[in-house]
Design brief:
The complex is a heterodimer. Chain A is mainly beta. Chain A has strands at 4-6, 10-13, 19-25, 31-38, 42-49, 56-57, 65-70, 73-78, 87-94, 103-104, 108-112. Chain A has a single domain, classed as Sandwich (Immunoglobulin-like), CATH 2.60.40.10. In chain A, the strands form two sheets. In chain A, strands 2, 4, 5, 6, 9, 10 and 11 form a seven-stranded mixed beta sheet that branches. A four-stranded antiparallel beta sheet of chain A has the order 1-3-8-7, with no helix packed on it. Chain A starts with a strand and ends with a strand. Helix content of chain B is 0%, strand content 51%. Classes of the chains: A mainly beta, B mainly beta.
């Protein structure tokens, strides 16, 4: 089975802190994604990557950056956390072309106080 | 602006067939339609994907009319364990790759 793991299930940070969310997949997938999920808004794509060191902005990239130094790992960085970044963050991976099935991690519930 | 719209919530009873419809009026030629299921405290899980007409797998069917402006996820004989949030996703495969998610339909199955 494909496994996508995220470094933390719950995280509490203070406003202004730099926050790292890590995601690792074990199926050699080319594509990796970071989403945030908020009630009533569904999933919104922050960034995605289709190869090592490649990244593309999603719908809401402002306030976030990403890093993909190895194929299996995709990191989401909040340079200076703000309270409006309190959310559930979901990582996903997929293989091949963009329409293929995405496999999701369990999510990280981030609270910024 | 591309958008997918689905009902916020639905109720049904065990043993019934449930149909959830998603509207995607601005669907483009190369777009694919995908549905995901999400349980609390878990990430979404792929259910089914289609391009046109009808697709069926072991858990669901997906009906897509000829104009492709909507799609209907059909869950046969639901059980309590089908209580979840169901997301419609349009994957845009043209020069600007886009993932157009619906806001999700919370399906509650009653005994």
């Amino acid at each position: 089975d494909v496994k996508v793991t995220q470094s933390s299930r719950y995280l509490v940070k203070r406003t202004g802190e730099k926050v790292f969310l890590e995601c690792v997949q074990d199926m050699d997938h080319e594509n990796m994604f970071w989403y945030r999920q908020d009630p009533g808004l569904g999933l919104r794509l922050i960034y995605f990557s289709y190869d090592v060191k490649m990244k593309e902005k999603g719908d809401i990239p402002e306030g976030y950056s990403v890093s993909r130094e190895k194929k299996e790992r995709f990191s989401l960085i909040l340079e200076s956390a703000s309270t409006n970044q309190t959310s559930m963050y979901l990582c996903a991976s997929s293989t091949g072309q963009g329409a293929n099935e995405q496999y999701f991690g369990p999510g990280t519930r981030l609270t910024v106080t | 602006l591309a958008k997918t719209t689905q009902p916020i919530s639905m109720d049904s009873y065990e043993g019934q067939e449930v149909n959830i419809t998603c509207s995607h009026n601005n669907i483009a030629t190369n777009d694919y339609i995908t549905w995901y299921q999400q349980f609390p405290s878990q990430g979404p899980r792929f259910i089914i994907q289609g391009y046109k007409t009808k697709v069926t797998n072991e858990v669901a069917s997906l009906f897509i009319p000829a104009d492709r402006k909507s799609s209907t996820l059909s869950l046969p004989r639901v059980s309590l364990s089908d209580t979840a949030v169901y997301y419609c996703l349009v994957v845009r495969m043209d020069s600007n790759y886009q993932l157009i998610w619906g806001a999700g339909t919370k399906l509650i199955i009653k005994p």
